[in-house]
C-alpha cells in the first residue's frame, strides 16, 4: 500500500526513489582500485571489530582487577559484562552441551554471538544505517566456522564413524539407504551451513530495506509532496520508528538463533548415537 501511494504521487509530478539492492553496494571510501578497497559496509565491520576488542579488553581488565583487589562489589560495566557473558555460557553453551563441552566450545560461541550482534545492530545506528551482516561475507565466514567446528567435534568424538552414522542411520533397511543417504547428506552437510547464512543475511537485508523505505518516504512526504499528501509523512515516520524497534529485536534474536543453532549442531555431532 505504501509503495502504491508513493507511485500515485509520483504520477502527479513528484518523484520518489525507493530503495534497491544497490543499497548494499556503497561507494568505495578508501584504497579504491586495490584488493584492500573499503566501502561503508567494510568500514562498519572494521569499526565493530575494534569496538568489540576494546570492550572485551576492558571487561577482562575489570575482572582481573576485581580478583587481585578482592573487590566483591562489581561496577555497572562489570555487571553488564558478566550478564552478557553468562547469558552465552549458561543459556546457550551449558544448556545444550553441558558444562564440560560447553566450556570447551565457549570461545567460539561467544565470538559468534557478539560478532553477529555487533554487526547487526549497526543497521539502526545513525550514520552507519546498515548492518555489517547485510552482505554475505560475514555470515558466510561465521557459518563456515560453525561448519568446521561441527565436523571437528564429530570427528574428534567418533572418528570416521561420525560420517558413517550420519549418512547411514542405524535401524534403516539397507534398501532405503539409496533414498535416505542423499537426504541425510544434503540436510546435514549442505543445508545446515546454507540455512545459517541465508537466515541471517535475508533478515538483515529485509530490515535495512524496510527502514530505508520508511525514512526515505518520510523525507519525501515532508519535503517534496504537495498539499495534504504531506500528512502521510507522519504515518511513515511512525512506521519507521516501529520498524527500528523491531529491527533491534531482530538483531538480538538473530545473534541468539545463529549461536544456538551452531551449538545444537555441535551437540548433534557429539551425541552418542554417532
Task: Describe the fold and architecture.
This protein has helices at 2-11, 40-69, 76-121, 137-158, 161-167, 177-223, 232-270; strands spanning 28-30, 38-39. By secondary structure, the chain is an all-alpha fold. The protein has one domain (18-270). It has a two-stranded antiparallel ribbon. The radius of gyration is 24 Å and the shape is globular. The termini are far apart.
Radius of gyration: 24 Å
Beta-strand percentage range: under 5%
What can be said about the biggest beta sheet? 2 strands, antiparallel
E-strand count: 2
* Helical amount: over 70%
Structural class: mainly alpha
Number of helical segments with 4 or more residues? 7
Write down the secondary-structure element order: HEEHHHHHH
Mean pLDDT: 89
Strand arrangement, major sheet: 1-2
End-to-end separation in angstroms reads 52 Å
Q: How many structural domains can be distinguished in the coordinates?
A: 1
- Based on Cα principal axes, name the global outline: globular
Unreliable runs: 8-13
